[in-house]
Amino acid sequence: MDSHRRLLSILHIVYGMFHILIFILFSTLARTFLPFLFEEIQQNDQDAAFFIGMGYSVIKSILIILLILIPIPSVIGGWAFLNNRKWGLNLMMVSGSLSLLSFPLGTGLGVYTIWTFLEVNKQERND
Fold this sequence. Notes:
Elements: H1 2-44, H2 46-69, H3 71-82, H4 87-98, H5 105-126
């Protein structure tokens, strides 16, 4: 069971870092190209530029909330459980449950997290 614990911790760290890298990539692309787009739209239509700017702010806020909800707890929980902290498994269970909606990698990780969580609890009850 120790190999499953270690593998689950490493998978959560890699999955979380992958999400963070994708977020940084999209953020960089948006900061690079959107000012040119906004400038062009603003020259043609002030009202449309206002609504597009508001939409961009809403989308950016949602992405930041998703970054806080899924990958950061996954990395912290993986690191904690790798260092034998009991609360790391609970944190990975939360992020693994949230990742079930992300098909196919998140679904696989979520199912494996739930299975490992149940096996660890069964092992602790038997000891």
